[in-house]
Amino acid sequence: PTGRHTRIAQCRIAVCYMHGAGVAQNEAGGLRWWRLAADQGDAGAQNAIGNCYDNGTGVVQDFAEALRWYRLAAVQGDVNAQCNLGRCSALGTGVAQNDSEAARWYR
Predict the structure, then answer these.
(1) Is the pLDDT of residue 95 over 90?
(2) Distance (Å, rounded) from C-alpha 19 to C-alpha 42?
(3) Alpha helices, DSSP H only, in the chain?
(4) Listed residue (60, 101, 103, 105) closest to 82, CA to CA
């Protein structure tokens, strides 16, 4: 199933798995639910997956993969992903440190 309400439900289930709310905590399970929503273009889920790769939550830490997911969300206007890209550029996390690029994403 697809659609806005389906994506919202998938994201909520993902959060339940990530935090163990009503189900056994299972970060990989949460990531699978976010992936379902992200594959349908949900920017919030894409940013959440970026966070997982950025922090190594439920996956092996991979800054390049985190950036890929952040970019997918950021170009859709997700402000959290835009801030994450700004932070990565400012600190040089997964990319060369670049204050101009950071400022572009922070705007």
Answers:
(1) yes
(2) 20
(3) 4-19, 27-38, 43-55, 63-74, 79-91, 99-106
(4) 105
